[in-house]
Amino acid sequence: MRAMVGIDESDESFYALQWFLDNLFPDLSAALSAGLLTLVHVQQPFQPYGFPAARPGVAGKTFYPSTVVADSVRKSQEQTSAALLSRALQMCKDKLIKAESLILEGDPKDMLCEISEQMNVDLLIVGSRGLGKIKRAFLGSVSDYCAHHAKCPTLIVKPPKEASNNK
């Protein structure tokens, strides 16, 4: 059996991982052999946008960030991703569970569904921000999308009651 947990910068994703480790992993430990728990973080691709030049008398000119700026942003994204996955891997290590990590680039909802299918995942675990229907309609929901589009069973772990009341 192979399980995958989606990790992002939200407390809810870490809560989902902790909930899985505390509640389901003990029952699945025989089925999940070493390295079959995968932690996935999907970072948004960096898009260097052009900005119109704001000098008087200069029409039609556009300023694009330098490659130094673009490289700096990419490096910062990589460091953030590594830090998130390091925290998640430490949670697994604290429970004496071996896990692997994966950093992808793209739209999180699409990439989680794609990689779970490519890796023949048996269970996809994602956190839920606890958004209401209106906020979910405008902001979108990775967990809702995965529940409807992933080819494997998807476990959506809701935040604790007191945390969801603060939203």
UniProtKB/TrEMBL annotation:
GO terms for molecular function: hydrolase activity. Residues 2-158 form the UspA domain. Keywords: Hydrolase. Pfam families: Usp. It comes from the Eukaryota. The keyword Hydrolase applies. The keyword Hydrolase applies. InterPro entries: Rossmann-like_a/b/a_fold, Universal_stress_UspA, UspA. This is Adenine nucleotide alpha hydrolases-like superfamily protein isoform 2. It comes from Theobroma cacao.
